[in-house]
Design a protein that fits this description.
By secondary structure, the protein is of the alpha/beta class. It has 2 domains: 188 residues, Rossmann fold (3-Layer(aba) Sandwich), CATH 3.40.50.150; 123 residues, 3-Layer(aba) Sandwich (Rossmann fold), CATH 3.40.50. It is built from 14 helices and 17 strands. The protein has a 7-stranded mixed sheet, with helices on both faces. The protein has a 6-stranded mixed sheet with strand order 14-13-12-15-16-17, with helices on both faces. The chain has a 4-stranded antiparallel sheet with strand order 1-2-3-9. Helix 2 packs parallel to helix 3 and helix 5 runs parallel beside helix 6. It starts with 20 loop residues before the first strand and ends with a strand. The structure holds zinc ion (ZN). The site of zinc ion has 8 residues, from loops.
Length: 417
Amino acid sequence: MNAPKPPATTFSCRICGGSSLHPFLDLGKMPIANAFLSCAQLSHPEYTFQLQAGFCDSCHMVQLLEAVDPDILFHDHYAYFSSISRVMDDHFGRLASSIGAEILYDERLPVVEIGANDGILLQKLAAYSPRAIGIEPSANVAAVAREKGLHIVSEFFDTELAASLRAEHCPAQLVIGANVLCHIPDLNGVARALETLLDAEGVFIFEDPYLLEIMTQLAYDQIYDEHVYYFSVTSLCRLFEKHGLRIFRVEPIPVHGGSMRVYGCRSACSRATEPSVTAQLAAESEYGLALLQTYSAFAERVQQSRTSLRELLQRLQVDGARVVGYAASSKGTVILNYCGIGSDMLEYVCDNTPSKHGLFTPGTRIPIVPIDRFAADYPDYAFVLAWNHLNEIASKEQTFREQGGRFITHIPTARIV
Ligand SMILES: [Zn+2]
């Protein structure tokens, strides 16, 4: 049976302004993914929005139809500090060292990081460049970076800021952003600012979740409020080309369940476009990323995954099994809300982040407890909400398995492992 055709819409694309933005996936009413609730907040209604993704068949950008106001998402108490993760620390260490070895070319020219967070990457880049500047609009996160002695500007990256940085510090030899580009609604503004700030031979590097990976892995939990866009190399090439910029290299990277790092420069820069770009464009074309029906088929597989998960959990519930959730994350919020899984199906969600203990999952209001609670009284099943860390979690929790416990994972279909 063919997937039903999504209706055409009058929503206009944020990138090309065209009116051919087709909604293909509706994950329903969704709370803010990392807005974990305190006991006191349980008596108040939660902010929710309709989580829907659309495909523009004019410029090929996949994007949210309803973007949440950044003031609600990136408030002064924005919780995500990059440095907490050891995996990310190693990841950025390798990135900084390869940049130092083959991208930087003139120490008089600044290196600028957009969305510098608490300085985890900028601090490593500063070892290779005496003029490292971070841009971080979130005040409390910027303060942590400044305490490390880093030069941080607390503003949004736009053409005006780019012009003032260029005037004060010279054009940039590198502009970089990790998990930041997909958060910014005005990407044409970012591209204009890049065009303003970059030196003639300067390079920009961005890494963000990668659309093809999301689709092949069925990682629909990557789709949430903070990610306004889901990039393909095709859509990014088109965006940058409009602004006199060019992608010359792409590298798939394994973080966050599948991301892509793109390297770009001015169109007239002497760097040649490498074979990785044409190969990735061909892979995207072959998968059908230019076709609306590919997105409808994805949405159908997402619905099937939801059905299989609900059926499995309902069967275990009838059998009287004890089932808990493992790892309280933004991605988990999407899975729990979309699949309609509450405290009737999961006794609690355990997590190793102390600041989340005693809180409740957004929307579904399941209590979050320390991992110790899990270990003290093993349930029958643990549903892994961070599916991309299943192997890591399973090897850490060998005693649970030895005592008869089993894990549940839900992608592409729900199963006990
Ligand atoms: Zn468009």
